[in-house]
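Form 7-S
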Amino acid sequence: MNVCYMNKKRDPHCPISNYSYYAQLIRSSCPEILKNCSYNNEVFNCCEYFQTIETDVGICYIINSIQTKNSKPYPMLSNMKQKSGVLKFQVLLTSMMYTLGEDEIPSVTTLYSSTLKLSLGKKYRRHVTVRNIENDPLVAETTPQQRACRFHDENEDGLYPHYSYSACNVLCRKRAQMELCQCIDHFMLDTKSERCNISGMWCLHSHSKDLTTLKPHWAKRPGLSCNCLPSCNETEITILKDVITTLKPKKYITYVEMVLAYLPTERFKRNVVRSRLDLVVSVGGTAGLFVGASLLSFVELIFFFTVRFISNVLMEKRKQ
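Output:
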């Protein structure tokens, strides 16, 4: 912006559009970033399972995500027989690592605690714990507003195959970019929309405070207010600690270990307090207690004013 837009003596070679092309030139491929992947000392092909995914921060490589086009999860199982769970890999370039659930995606608004900047010449060991959410089968019969969450298949106009809180925020940011600047940045998904040229990028830069931070709808500070519900199937990942050591002698490579500290000891469960059947039972019980009526009484009442009434009218006509 400073060199190619604000400067009056602009260099004629300044790129003024097609920024997605230059972003692809700069991004490294999976074999140039990752190698020597293993889980519990069982080696696997890094780039077969670390799949490409488009995000609003650029191309990322993600493992065991349901948001990729052709999802191919690696079986990372931990149970009472196999309690340990250690994912190891080597990173060849300075990178940013995100620790997320299977339905979440890296984004501009990802929590700082879920990220870890990887520098060459160091070894990173991250200890995590996991807590899942179990849903009662009757939860699916309620509306998203009643249960205050959405299932993966409730993904209307989504940019990704499944619904998640972060995917919803990306869609919200894309709509805000179109509303403010009538174009989207070169990292944003959906190639049907118009990509920003240099003037559009200046517009996004001018509204960066309104587009890169989230806020509740009642807050008056700058930010983006998105009406996004959490996922009903989200996984809560807690980072216990990060152990960082410097390699000696210094090497231009990064060693990463992701460790499941211990098996989950807690699980959230979402239940329906009162279902439709409970409503019928409650109404029937109340009616039976106060007026001595039951469900059969209501059927008889309908029968009396319909079938019985018509039958009496027809019999009267026959007599006449």
